[in-house]
TrEMBL record:
Gene3D superfamilies: Winged helix-like DNA-binding domain superfamily/Winged helix DNA-binding domain. Pfam families: MarR_2 (PF12802). Residues 1-127 form the HTH marR-type domain. InterPro entries: HTH_MarR-typ, WH-like_DNA-bd_sf, WH_DNA-bd_sf. GO terms for molecular function: DNA binding; DNA-binding transcription factor activity. SMART domains: HTH_MARR (SM00347). This is MarR family transcriptional regulator. Keywords: DNA-binding, Transcription, Transcription regulation.
C-alpha cells in the first residue's frame, strides 16, 4: 500500500509538472539544488539515490532547458559543479506549490489525529528499514547496482 501511495503521489506530481516541461526525475534534482548548489554530479547522484548515468541524463536535459549550468571551481579544473541559473531558481516559486497541492489532495478527509497516527507509523517504518539496511551493510550485503554489467 505504501508503494502504491508513493506511486500515486509521484504520478499526481508528474501531471502537474508536465505543464512546466519538467519531468519527475528532473524535479528530484531541482529540489536538491534549491537547497544546496555547487554539488558535483556524483554528490547529486548520492543525494538523489540514483546512478550517475541517470543523473547525467537528467542534468543534460536541465542544462538544455536553461535551468542549470556546470562550472569548474578554482583549484580543480577536473570536477564540474552544478549551479542553478536565474530561471532554475525562479522555478522554485512555480513548482513547490505543486507538491504542496499534491499533499493536500492526498490527505484530504483525514482528521488531525489520523494524520498524527500515519506520521508516527511512517517514521517507525522508515526507522525500521534504515536499521535493516544498516545491518545488511555490516554483514556485507549491499543494494545491487541498477546497471547491468557488460
Amino acid at each position: 500500500m505504501i508503494r502504491l501511495a508513493t506511486r500515486g503521489f509521484n504520478r499526481s506530481l508528474q501531471i502537474r509538472l508536465a505543464s512546466h516541461h519538467v519531468t519527475f526525475g528532473q524535479w528530484i534534482f531541482l529540489r536538491i539544488l534549491w537547497e544546496q548548489e555547487g554539488l558535483t554530479q556524483r554528490e547529486l547522484s548520492e543525494e538523489a539515490g540514483l546512478t550517475e548515468p541517470t543523473t547525467h541524463t537528467a542534468l543534460q536535459r536541465l542544462e538544455a532547458l536553461g535551468f542549470l549550468e556546470k562550472r569548474t571551481l578554482a583549484g580543480n579544473k577536473r570536477k564540474q559543479h552544478v549551479f542553478l541559473t536565474k530561471r532554475g531558481k525562479e522555478l522554485r516559486i512555480e513548482l513547490e506549490p505543486l507538491a504542496v497541492e499534491v499533499n493536500e489532495v492526498a490527505l484530504a478527509g483525514l482528521s488531525s489525529s489520523e494524520l498524527d497516527i500515519i506520521r508516527k507509523g511512517m517514521l517507525l517504518i522508515l526507522d525500521n528499514l534504515e536499521e535493516d539496511e544498516r545491518k545488511a551493510g555490516e554483514e556485507g550485503r549491499k543494494v545491487p547496482p541498477t546497471r547491468i554489467p557488460t
